């Protein structure tokens, strides 16, 4: 039956305008079928079926009952038909389900079956990336902050990733390192950055931002505190040691002077 409709399908598509539908990964996509020319007809008088761009049948409603004979194995137990709204639900949507879908409404006549109507749908699939995460590898006044920002399991491919330093207008970015899972086809992304530490401050707040065509997400603000450098610690210790030495010297001199004064007072006077 499907092969027999191939020529007709191509002919109808030449003037068809696809409706655009979007679904979330692992959720349900809804593929409509508009029965404009069959709105006064019962499903028991019609054959309604959906097929993908490879002409594989997703679902068939055959004169009032579900028919599985022509359904492709990859769609078995993944669909549900809403007869009131003439809509097919495709469950557990994957990235590989993106593409074009057709719904056909056929009517049986004495001369054979004819196509009353066709609905053409373009399905896209999105998956929300995880909230970006900042990992600090190193931080130093002279070398700056070395960090990695990463996010996983999203679709489509991200367009931009950067780190923003709070209380400033500075954005830092680098080439995105993008990988794709061979099974789910979802993307993971990261950037490695070396950011200079602002002068005269000892802590900053960093936020990692990820942008895609359809969404923007950011990390939890992370406080990065700069440790005191060894040179500063040495100067501080030297200063403390100098103060202690001075206090000890002053104390010894004071004790010497007090003792000298006491000895002078204890000498017998001249008569």
Automatic annotation (TrEMBL):
<keyword id="KW-1015">Disulfide bond</keyword>
<dbReference type="InterPro" id="IPR051713">
    <property type="entry name" value="T-cell_Activation_Regulation"/>
</dbReference>
<keyword id="KW-0732">Signal</keyword>
<dbReference type="InterPro" id="IPR013783">
    <property type="entry name" value="Ig-like_fold"/>
</dbReference>
<dbReference type="InterPro" id="IPR013106">
    <property type="entry name" value="Ig_V-set"/>
</dbReference>
<dbReference type="InterPro" id="IPR037677">
    <property type="entry name" value="CD86_IgV"/>
</dbReference>
<feature type="signal peptide">
    <location>
        <begin position="1"/>
        <end position="18"/>
    </location>
</feature>
<dbReference type="InterPro" id="IPR036179">
    <property type="entry name" value="Ig-like_dom_sf"/>
</dbReference>
<keyword id="KW-0325">Glycoprotein</keyword>
<keyword id="KW-0472">Membrane</keyword>
<feature type="transmembrane region" description="Helical">
    <location>
        <begin position="239"/>
        <end position="258"/>
    </location>
</feature>
<keyword id="KW-0675">Receptor</keyword>
<keyword id="KW-0393">Immunoglobulin domain</keyword>
<feature type="domain" description="Immunoglobulin V-set">
    <location>
        <begin position="28"/>
        <end position="105"/>
    </location>
</feature>
<protein>
    <submittedName>
        <fullName>T-lymphocyte activation antigen CD86</fullName>
    </submittedName>
</protein>
<keyword id="KW-1133">Transmembrane helix</keyword>
<keyword id="KW-1003">Cell membrane</keyword>
<keyword id="KW-0812">Transmembrane</keyword>
């Amino acid at each position: 039956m499907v092969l027999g409709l191939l020529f007709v399908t191509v002919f109808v598509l030449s003037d068809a305008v696809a409706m655009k539908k979007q679904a979330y990964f692992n959720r349900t996509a809804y593929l409509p079928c508009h029965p404009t020319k069959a709105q006064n007809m019962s499903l028991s008088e019609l054959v309604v079926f959906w097929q993908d761009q490879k002409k594989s049948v997703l679902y068939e409603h055959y004169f009032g009952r579900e028919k599985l004979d022509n359904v492709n194995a990859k769609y078995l137990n993944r669909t549900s038909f809403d007869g009131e709204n003439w809509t097919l639900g495709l469950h557990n949507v994957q990235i590989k389900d993106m593409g074009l879908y057709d719904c056909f409404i056929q009517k049986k006549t004495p001369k054979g079956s004819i196509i009353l109507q066709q609905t053409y749908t373009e399905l896209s699939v999105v998956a929300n990336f995880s909230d970006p995460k900042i990992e600090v590898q190193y931080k130093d006044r002279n070398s700056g902050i070395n960090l990695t920002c990463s996010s996983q399991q999203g679709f489509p491919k991200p367009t931009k990733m950067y780190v923003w330093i709070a209380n400033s207008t500075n954005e830092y970015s680098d080439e995105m390192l993008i990988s794709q899972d061979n099974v789910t086809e979802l993307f993971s992304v990261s950037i490695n950055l070396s950011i200079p530490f602002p002068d005269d401050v000892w802590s900053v707040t960093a936020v990692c931002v990820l942008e895609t065509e359809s969404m923007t997400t950011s990390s939890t603000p992370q406080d990065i505190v700069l440790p005191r450098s060894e040179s500063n610690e040495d100067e501080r210790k030297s200063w403390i040691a100098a103060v202690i030495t001075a206090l000890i010297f002053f104390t010894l001199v004071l004790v010497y002077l007090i003792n000298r004064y006491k000895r002078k007072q204890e000498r017998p006077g001249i008569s």
